Amino acid sequence: MVMKVGLIDVDGHNYPNLPLMKISAWHKAQGDHVEWYQPLFSGHMDRVYMSKVFSFSPDYEYCIDADEIIRGGTGYAISLRGGHEEYDKTKDLPLSDEIEHIYPDYELYGITDTAYGFLTRGCPRGCSFCHVKAKEGQCSHKVADLSEFWRGQENIELLDPNLLACKDCHELLDQLIDSGAKVNFSQGLDIRLMTKEKAEKISKIPIKAIHFAWDRYEDKDIVIPKFKEFRAVSKIRNKDLQVYCLVGDKERKLLDSDLERIYWLRENGYAPYVMIYDKEHLPKKHELLRLQRWVNNRFIFWKTSRFEEYTG
Question: pLDDT tens for residues 28-70?
Fold first, then answer.
């Protein structure tokens, strides 16, 4: 029997939802009818899938006319208790292996020139502010070859949490090199695991953007030499070498160490990008929000050398 299937991207359509693209591909392969669910136009559905990535996204507020409603995603699994985020894996429904490894339905979002996917899952770090440990495990492991979600597209968006920690990372970097596609390492590559060989391989990949992470100031004796070594090997443009800088984790105020990280990165050929922990619960005029607006607005940031100039 042909099913009528509805999809709801709870976070909106600003960034493609990979699970929904895979669910769509699987149902279409079964001959089912798949569409974005619209309460005024879709009518009765056999099944509706709701996917939510971010905990701060408001939930879908309209009535859903369906025999079955399936909700899943990290956004449903995270809750705030006692001032701390908790992750409930039972609410983050995993895809079946058959759906997980299917080629995504990029037509769902009208995507023609970009491929999205994971080559690896998991991360050995287990940072307190990150849910990868609970969601994917504390070991980075290969889950796919590039061909699973890429078929010649011009651009590749990699979603891996810690590709460089995987024992197969050299093989996977070679696959990216061979593709000839422009790659955006959208999550923070672990600069602490960088080696000359890895840096040389990355430098052979056409880079759309690359993101590292320097979240803990106390790691400076490890990360600074690694950043210098990578810059010596890489010819990637400064604006394409972005570094996530987490602020506001333990202290809900701007620290001297936050500014020290930002200034050092800019002076050494990297573009810092400020991420605020638990941002949605900060007062609207908080100094960390001003810091984020200054750093993440590239035009203003490169024209204004000190934060005091921006706020003064």
Answer: 999 999 999 999 899 999 999 999 998 888 999 999 999 999 9
Q: Which amino acid is at 151?
A: R
Residue 96 phi, psi (nearest 5): -65, 160
Q: Which residue has the tokens 């987490």?
A: 246
Cβ neighbourhood burial of 267 (10 Å; 0-12, 13-18, 19+) = exposed
Residue 279 included in any domain? no
CA–CA dist 177, 158 (Å, integer): 13
Q: Is residue 286 part of a domain?
A: no
Residue type, 211: H
Let me know if residue 35 belongs to a domain: yes
What is the rounded distance in angstroms from the CA atom of residue 181 to the CA atom of residue 150? 10
Quick one: CA torsion of 52, 58, 61, 64, rounded to 10 degrees? Answer: 0
The single-letter code of the amino acid at 239 is K
